[in-house]
Write a structure and sequence with these properties.
8 helices; 2 domains; Rossmann fold; seven-stranded mixed sheet; Methionyl-tRNA Fmet Formyltransferase, Chain A, domain 2; 17 strands; 24% helix; alpha/beta
Length: 329
């Protein structure tokens, strides 16, 4: 853990607010943007976010959460198709930024933009860097069974989440958090941490700390096929996957009755005669037999249906008991 700066007097702030450009996209970034708007040392002069995209059955142009928030506050909005272009760099340069702040942006920021603000670009990242760098730190934290989670604020360089750290904040995990729950807390904690660090940083009173490369790990983007539950793995890993892969790509098994998405699971002991990959009766409900135990299927969603308990699915589809899921050895 990096020690936070000591509280300072209200007069210990820059003579004028720092002209700040915010780069963000998803819901994680919204509390960070709000923290900037509320900070006395910050003037948000522009927001960079992806263009509105067609979504839903009607294909209507839909803005990302940061674009919605920026429009709500009447902030200048840049929505380039590509970030790594001279035109995008020129548009940001025209805002004359002193500082950039990035959260949940989802795009690589080129050196031509990183070098524009004199105070650099700060990144609010939802992990305890250098652990879980990259695109999917929240799912990775759950999948790894980490005993704690955290957020870090770093000054960006040309590497992938490799820049020097301004500070971090951690909290213990209960082992029941889903990805949306953990991301929401990380967003709140990250926004609060950034608010504490900005004043001392802008005054040059905050020393950055290089990341320890020996402790670094890298996450990768998730793919749709990653959601398949592999019963050859330990049951505890399957339960973590169910929590980590919400809402996307989800966790599922393929049965002769079709795909069954698992929304909530619980680890239980395996019966001596249970074949790995079998769907078995578990009290009134169902369980998937894994390598060293069972994953109780507490809540499931059949294809084209609403979520239901495993017991309700079993009552409607008793033939599922004894079936072997696709891909099981």
């Amino acid at each position: 853990m990096i020690e936070p700066p000591s509280p300072s007097a209200a007069s210990d702030r820059p003579a004028r607010p720092a002209r700040t450009v915010f780069l963000g996209s998803g819901a994680f970034a919204v509390p960070v943007l709000r923290a900037l708007l509320a900070h006395p040392s910050i003037e948000v002069v522009g927001v960079v976010t992806p263009p509105d995209r067609p979504a839903g059955r009607r294909g209507e142009a839909t803005p990302v959460p940061v674009a919605v928030e920026a429009r709500r506050f009447g902030l200048p909005l840049l929505q380039p198709e590509r970030v790594r272009t001279p035109e995008t760099a020129a548009a940001i340069k025209a805002l004359a930024p002193d500082l950039g702040v990035l959260a949940d942006f989802g795009r690589i920021v080129p050196p031509s933009i990183l070098e524009l603000p004199r105070h650099g670009i700060l990144n609010v990242h939802p992990s305890l860097l250098p652990r879980h760098r990259g695109a999917t730190p929240v799912p990775a934290t759950i999948l790894a069974g980490d005993p704690e989670a955290g957020v870090a604020v770093m000054r960006m360089d040309e590497g992938l989440d490799t820049g020097p750290l301004l500070g971090d904040r951690s909290w213990p995990l209960e082992g029941s958090e889903t990805a949306p729950e953990l991301e929401a807390r990380a967003a709140r904690e990250g926004a609060g941490l950034l608010g504490e660090l900005l004043g001392p940083y802008l005054l040059g009173r905050l020393e950055t700390v290089p990341q320890d490369e020996a402790l670094a790990s890298l996450t990768r983007p998730l793919r749709r096929g990653d959601g398949r539950l592999d019963p050859a793995r330990p049951a505890v890993e399957l339960e973590r996957q169910v929590r980590a892969f919400q809402p996307w790509p989800g966790s599922f098994v393929e049965t002769p009755l079709g795909r069954l998405v698992v929304l909530k699971g619980l680890v239980a002991e395996r019966g001596a005669s249970d074949p790995i990959g079998a769907v078995v009766a578990d009290g009134l409900g169902l369980a998937l037999v894994a390598a060293d135990g069972r994953l109780r299927l507490l809540e499931v969603q059949p294809a084209g249906r609403r979520p239901m308990t495993g017991a309700a699915f079993r009552r409607g589809h008793p033939a599922v008991v004894g079936q072997i899921v696709s891909g099981a050895s």
